[in-house]
Amino acid sequence: MFGINEILGKIFSKKPLTEEEKFKILHSKRINPKVVEYLMQKLNNLYIEVLGNYEGSLFQLMQVGKLMGWCWQTTESAIVFLNDDDYIERGNLYFDERNPKYYHSWICFNYKGIEYVLDPCLNFLCKKDDYSKIFEPDVKSKVSAKAVKEELIRQIMSPKEEENSEEHKNFERIMRDIFIFSYDKVMEEKKNEVTVKGSENLDAPLYRNGSGYKTELEDGKIKKLTVHYYYTNC
Length: 234
Description:
This protein is α+β, with helices and mostly antiparallel strands. The protein has two domains: 1-30, no CATH class; 31-229, no CATH class. It is built from nine helices and ten strands. The protein has helices spanning 4-12, 19-27, 33-42, 58-63, 71-79, 128-135, 145-157, 166-178, 183-189, and strands at residues 46-50, 54-57, 87-93, 102-111, 114-119, 124-127, 138-144, 194-195, 212-218, 221-229. The strands form two sheets. The chain has a five-stranded mixed beta sheet with strand order 2-1-10-9-8. β9 and β10 form a beta hairpin. The chain is globular. The N and C termini lie far apart (39 Å). 32% of the residues are buried.
């Protein structure tokens, strides 16, 4: 297995890196502790539940790899606590020849004039320039934090129109199949949740998201969020 110096040697000689090597070099990049403090403060009121298996803050789950596979839901849930002009990018990452199109989403944010990437599902916090050089993103869509906030609040404030929809009935059937031995308990817990309706439109604020949200709003802004991830048809 190559160490960092050997990997850097491959970069300087313009030899292709493997997926493992790319992850290693990006994880080796030092990040300003002030950036971490800034994000932790911003995301302090975000709590995530993954099915019935894991729960905790974004950083707790991110560091132990429990957000892998939930990139749409996680980026959309976290971005609402960032500045309006921060944004989500969606598209393909190039890992290596074996995995040249990893379909994914990540958060881009500005801190004191420098752009960074928060990729909670792959466990990266780094400068955007480094992320772009390593993964060569093919960006298919860019959605602002402002657009995600507005759409999430809209759905949270008007959930009743969805309750009798065919999509809602399908969701309940899925829940019954997944949680067959604890369906009543799950549905009791969901009473205070609003299930958002994601879209298949890549440019939509909520993309393929069917999570349950418990939200505290203040002056029309999201102050606290508990998001519960479920397997859905989204």
